[in-house]
Amino acid sequence: MPERLSEVEARRASVEELGTVTDAMRSLAAVRLQQASAMLAGTRTYAEVVAGALAQAVALRRGAPGRWPSRNGRGRPALVLFAPEHGFVGAFAERLADAAQAAPPDHALWVVGSRGAALLEERGRPADWGLPMATHTDGVTSTARRIAEALYRAAAEDRLSRVELLYGRTVSGGAPELVREALLPLDLARVPAVGGAVPPLTNLPAAELVAHLVDEYVFALLVHAAMESFAAENAARLLVMMAARQNIATTLDTLTGIVRRLRQEQITTELIELATGAEAQAGGTPH
């Protein structure tokens, strides 16, 4: 009985330690989710402002708005997947990997996030290009910039034609949903116009101005997608840690009840042994 009690107590101690780790991960995920959510409004506004400037610049050009890049790419279509960098996100990473794996075989898979890259590797669909996902909000911009540079380099070398983004989005910290949207080529006629009717003052030729603003707009879209993905990863991890903490609390209650029962049984056994010994000693004493 004492040996069994010690085993249960040791298990309870291990579960308590696991609860401490889970609480730390839950707190970290909550903080990072809050930081990303606070910055999403800024990344969205940034993209809208650049879109407005681009729409005005396109209006300065002669002829139809057209598409950018204007030439027909001879390369492969590409899907840029924003996936979690680490685990403990439940089924979120698997859902992203499922969606990416379903892309046609001719699509190049560009994977941002080590967890997503590992899952696709296991499924026999390795990434054609990869990059670690930012692990804090300060790193999102540099991650987006590296993606943009690689995309433009591949497009210039005619290795890519059209490009789509696939990432997670969470609303109010809920379970992430998957978002898939086109990135390139950019239909300049569909860029959302923002601002008044007064033409802007410019110091650059319209075509050159449009090219610069297209670069900035694509970068802004990548920053926003990366920030959405970062928020979704931490929202998924927060939900997983909350569920784990609930299970840990239930397990601790169960183990605590077992420990109390075993201790009571141990005390009862000791009392019985003590009483039996006393009776035996009393029965053997001469009168």
Give a written overview of the molecule.
- By secondary structure, the chain is of the alpha/beta class.
- The protein is built from five helices and seven strands; from the N terminus they run H-E-E-H-E-H-E-H-E-E-E-H.
- A five-stranded mixed beta sheet has the order 4-3-2-5-6. A two-stranded antiparallel sheet has the order 1-7.
- The chain is elongated and about 120 Å long.
Figure out the total of helices: 5
Task: Give the radius of gyration.
Answer: 30 Å
* Principal-axis shape: elongated
Poorly predicted runs: none
Structural class: alpha/beta
Mean pLDDT: 87
> What share of residues are in beta strands?
5-15%
**Range of helix content:** 55-70%
Compute the separation of the termini in Å: 38 Å
Q: What composes the largest sheet?
A: 5 strands, mixed
What is the element layout, followed by pairings?
Layout: H1 2-60, E1 67-68, E2 76-82, H2 92-101, E3 108-112, H3 114-122, E4 129-131, H4 140-156, E5 160-169, E6 177-184, E7 186-187, H5 206-283
Parallel strand pairs: 2-3, 2-5, 3-4
Antiparallel strand pairs: 1-7, 5-6
Helix pairs in contact: 1-5, 2-3, 4-5
